[in-house]
Design brief:
It is built from eight helices and seven strands, in the order βαβαβαβαβαβαααβ. It has 252 residues and is an alpha/beta fold. The protein has a single domain, classed as 3-Layer(aba) Sandwich (Rossmann fold). Helix 1 links the parallel strand 1 and strand 2. Helix 1 crosses helix 8.
Length: 252
Amino acid sequence: MSDLKIAIVTGGSRGIGRSTVLELAKRGVRSIFTYRANRAEAETTLALAAEAGAPGVALELDVAEAATFEGFAGQVRSALAEMGAERFDYLVNNAGTSSAASLASITVAEMDALYAVHFKGVLFLTQALAPLMNDGGRIVNISSGLARFASPGRIGYGPIKAAVESLTRYMALELGPRRITANVVAPGPIATDFSGGLVRDNPEVNKRIAEHTALGRAGLPEDVGPVIAAVLSDGFGWVNAQRIEVAGGMQI
């Protein structure tokens, strides 16, 4: 079992998270992934990962609830023991929520919720899990194209993702002595159920995105998962504290 590689992927039950779990499974990496409430979607991911040859483990977690992270770390220890391991190798902080608020409409509660999931959750979950990570491991935090360019109705979401990018550089600095890298993958608009399926299900929105993308279409989860898996691979070992946008050339 010494060659076994294990990833923890938050929000792995669907969308980009599921694509990441399955791409890692194709590479022989087993995943402990989280889901917030939809166990049925998690079971689908488990079945697909097992079919790909790398059975996973699904654990329930709300990344907005930092007070639960110590207990979650205990669940991870148990899952690792079941896999015959004591530590894991890769952490993908993917779980997220959307916001379509403007300057005029955003509320304190909505901004606090974005902060709890996207920044506080990423910071303190990484803090809780870092002691269980192997030296030489890899962290990928998920940002957004909206951290680079502005779009109406994203005044909370875009800036909080920019904060995640800064946080990632600090992680890279502090974990460097352990040879743990930390990088950002920043997807553009992806056709998933995120934002209520806006990109996937609204033809006008999908068309507008395609018109502003050099490759002529909106992204798919399968465009992003392989990039995350690649950044976690040995071939990216000397890449650290960097931002990789996966958006097909949007607004360039």
